[in-house]
Amino acid sequence: MAPQPTVLVLGGVGFIGRNFVAHLVENGLAAEIRVIDKVLPQTAYLNKRFQAAFEKVQFMQGDLSNTIPPEKFEKIFTRDDGSSFDYVINLASETKFSQLAEIYEERIYKLSINCAKEAVKRKAKVFVQVSTGDIYESSGTASKEDSKTKPWNLMAQYKLKVDKELQDMPGLNLVILRPAVVYGIGAMAGLSKFYALAYTVHAVRIEMLTIIFGFGLPRKKNAAPRLICGRVYQHLQKTMEFLWTKDLKLNTVHVQDVVRAIWHSANWYVSSDNAQPGAPAIFNLADENNTDQEAVNTHIRSIFGIETDFKGTVFSLLAQSDMKEATEETNDMHLGPWSNLLKAAQIKSSPLTPYLDQELLCNNALSLDGTKICVSTGFTYEHPKVTTQSLREIITDFQELGIWPRD
């Protein structure tokens, strides 16, 4: 039997990273695991499962941005015995939306390119880059790996910039994974804010008209913001309304399937099953449910006992013409009730927030064909669709961490 690989996990404290580390540890998959992150595990709201996993890996605090000293960068990639890691998994990235281009240039593009170059220098057997499904053109059909690209937000533009350059980097043994909306235990923010377009009730001026409306929550890669707003609307005893229509695609993939895909694709890449060794491999990650807004809302209604509705295309287009003001007023309305809920539950501090980023309210469907990885590598998804239970688990985990009010 071949020896187990040694693994360097960059950005391993985040949502996907903590789940990936736990997956490796609990299943005894790696001979050595080193985790790099600028955030200390002790300050990252890790639950007991994740805490136990991190006790069994080597953690090094480090900011992988372009400002890191060369000698520290060298140390990160060097094992204690002076050798290099077999697998390098890059989950490090700026995850906040609506940032300046300079931030994404530094914390997505330069970070990823520098790490990939070091992986080439160290002759890493595989470099797995976790990208995003946001890079594809929003259309009426599910995007495949070779579909037309048209990133709909600035973060995705830099993710695509990285993807393209990595594919042309000589000597890089590359796997790129492009997940849909990722959900599961540990989902708090960042990529999570792709998951909705919720509404409250405001008076907002649009062009020459005054229309009563509000929004509520963005649509990016995890369920937390939508769940938080669902709790707010339960508190307000109001209908939770959404922009656009019920059939707007928000395809999903469970975080456990993502972490399994990372490990599976890395092992496949270095195996004899890979018919094109040394060539870049790109795989979308999306379950078979073809999830849309209404599919998610079904679970929100079940969890919180509230009504949900949609404003439709015409109204949403009018709202979009004055999105900045609408977003500001909506945040004001959501943040207050959420703060009151936390105060009533005697929760002094919580990383969870219903805060909405303006750029996430556009009519951009996320529809991915995630079958190539199954056909090409034999991977199987264990979570074929979002369930009410899988969303309740997120809330229960938050409650056990003391950052979500107990009902």
From TrEMBL:
It comes from the Eukaryota. Transmembrane segments: none annotated. InterPro entries: Epimerase_deHydtase, Lipid_A_modif_metabolic_enz, NAD(P)-bd_dom_sf. Residues 7-271 form the NAD-dependent epimerase/dehydratase domain. SUPFAM superfamilies: NAD(P)-binding Rossmann-fold domains. This is NAD-dependent epimerase/dehydratase domain-containing protein. It comes from Mortierella alpina (Oleaginous fungus).
